[in-house]
């Protein structure tokens, strides 16, 4: 497999300026027609966008993870009934109706993908990144997860087993990364800053306190 | 269907290209595409399964060269025409000409927070007990239906272990085609990498899918 096809395909938006202005016109026309018919409310669109730009994002998931790190009872609840445990922190709703939390251990690293579309736990991670929805990740995460992880600069010990979760039904998976060393004195608020979005998909690890400061 | 969306194990797409500090949206139209898609979903005229199927019916050449928001919009145009809300020619001209069907709901700005917070749960009770139990060996069926299905090609005709009984959920193969929700038990089934990818599989790899009961047979 060569990297030649990176330049003439779609794994970055910057190659696509003309195509993107076509889409701008197409979507504007669609919004105009639906608004003329009274079927949609442009202000509702603004409210949806604002929700996912400012309210529902990976900080929600980071809160869940940090709480699980400091509170063994909460971690147990997450294992038994992630939907309810996550709802107790106020995170519910669209694409988070049926949650499962999967815990990384010293032996096993979890990686989440949706090979068939773009299923993603919106209520805790917000909108998925472009790469999560693109063919390169969806095709290779199930077959070549170590190769994929290397592209995120994650190299796991050879002895670590990788478990890939293909989100083929309505369950949505949140990875609980391992708590970094040297964080015993940190509280939930401090720990949240170590929990990256990618660490909750499985394409990253939680940051060490020193990495966070860099 | 064996469509362009069923990507697990395909090759040739090159490396994953994570973007540092990726913005939520890469263009203004992506924001509108998100909001329009969710607003139209609120009509109650089609299910999430029908909308997924509309996306996977996009011609492979278009599907594989489109961003995901473009995939959403292409499929949405099909759904709007199918359900008599807007014709393709109206959308092409950017001007409403025909009377639209009456949606069950119109999503107004004041309802957005409640609708997003509620979501759309897909679990439904079933009368029967689960056919399979945790720890049981099962084989996935070897079917290539022309209709919507959620059993990926790479996981067909493979032997795995039931790891969890996850509850009973709307059956997408039927619901995508207006044949009713017909809920079934869903199981997390885990496969050894070698069972799927053969001798070249990464050592220690396991892959799971969430499979509706009719995707599985006892071994």
TrEMBL record, chain B:
EC class: lyase
Coiled-coil zones: none
InterPro entries recorded: CN_hydtase_beta-like_N, CN_hydtase_beta_C, CN_hydtase_beta_dom_C, Elect_transpt_acc-like_dom_sf, Nitrile_hydratase_bsu
A GO molecular-function descriptor: nitrile hydratase activity
Domain Nitrile hydratase beta subunit-like N-terminal residues, every copy: 1-105
Record's keyword terms, sorted: Lyase
Residues annotated as domain Nitrile hydratase beta subunit: 121-218
Function: NHase catalyzes the hydration of various nitrile compounds to the corresponding amides.
Family in the record: Belongs to the nitrile hydratase subunit beta family.
Protein name according to UniProt: Nitrile hydratase subunit beta
Lineage: Bacteria, Pseudomonadati, Pseudomonadota, Alphaproteobacteria, Hyphomicrobiales
Gene that encodes it: nthB
């Amino acid at each position: 497999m060569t990297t030649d096809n990176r330049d003439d395909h779609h794994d970055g938006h910057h190659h696509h300026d003309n195509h993107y202005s076509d889409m701008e016109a197409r979507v504007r026309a669609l919004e105009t027609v639906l608004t003329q018919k009274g079927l949609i409310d442009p202000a509702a669109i603004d409210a949806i966008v604002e929700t996912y730009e400012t309210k529902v994002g990976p900080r929600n998931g980071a809160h869940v993870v940090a709480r699980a790190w400091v509170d063994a009872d909460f971690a147990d609840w997450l294992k038994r009934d992630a939907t309810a445990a996550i709802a107790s922190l106020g995170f519910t709703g669209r694409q988070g109706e049926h949650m499962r939390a999967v815990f990384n251990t010293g032996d096993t690293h979890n990686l989440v993908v949706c090979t068939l579309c773009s299923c993603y736990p919106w209520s805790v991670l917000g909108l998925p990144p472009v790469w999560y929805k693109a063919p390169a990740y969806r095709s290779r995460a199930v077959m070549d997860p170590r190769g994929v992880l290397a592209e995120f600069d994650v190299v796991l010990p050879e002895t670590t087993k990788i478990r890939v979760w293909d989100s083929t039904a309505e369950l949505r998976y949140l990875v609980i990364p391992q708590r970094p060393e040297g964080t015993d004195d940190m509280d939930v608020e401090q720990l949240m800053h170590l929990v990256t979005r990618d660490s909750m998909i499985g394409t990253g690890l939680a940051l060490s306190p020193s990495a966070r400061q860099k | 269907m064996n469509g362009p969306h069923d990507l697990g194990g395909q090759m040739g797409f090159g490396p994953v290209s994570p973007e540092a500090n990726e913005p939520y949206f890469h263009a203004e139209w992506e924001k509108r595409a998100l909001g329009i898609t969710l607003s139209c979903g609120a009509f109650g005229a089609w299910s999430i399964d029908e909308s997924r199927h509309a996306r996977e019916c996009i011609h492979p050449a278009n599907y594989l060269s489109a961003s995901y928001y473009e995939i959403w919009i292409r499929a949405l145009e099909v759904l709007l025409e199918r359900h008599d809300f807007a014709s393709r020619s109206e959308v092409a001209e950017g001007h409403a000409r025909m009377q639209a069907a009456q949606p069950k709901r119109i999503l107004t700005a004041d309802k957005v927070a409640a609708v997003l917070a509620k979501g759309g749960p897909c679990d439904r009770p079933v009368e029967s007990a689960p056919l399979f139990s945790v720890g049981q060996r099962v084989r996935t069926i070897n079917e290539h239906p022309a209709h919507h299905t959620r059993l990926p090609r790479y996981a067909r005709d493979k032997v795995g272990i039931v790891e969890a009984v996850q509850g009973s959920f709307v059956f997408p193969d039927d619901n995508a085609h207006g044949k009713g929700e017909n809920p079934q038990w869903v199981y997390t089934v885990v496969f050894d990498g070698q069972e799927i990818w053969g001798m070249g599989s990464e050592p220690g790899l396991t892959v799971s899918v969430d499979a509706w009961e009719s995707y599985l047979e006892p071994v």
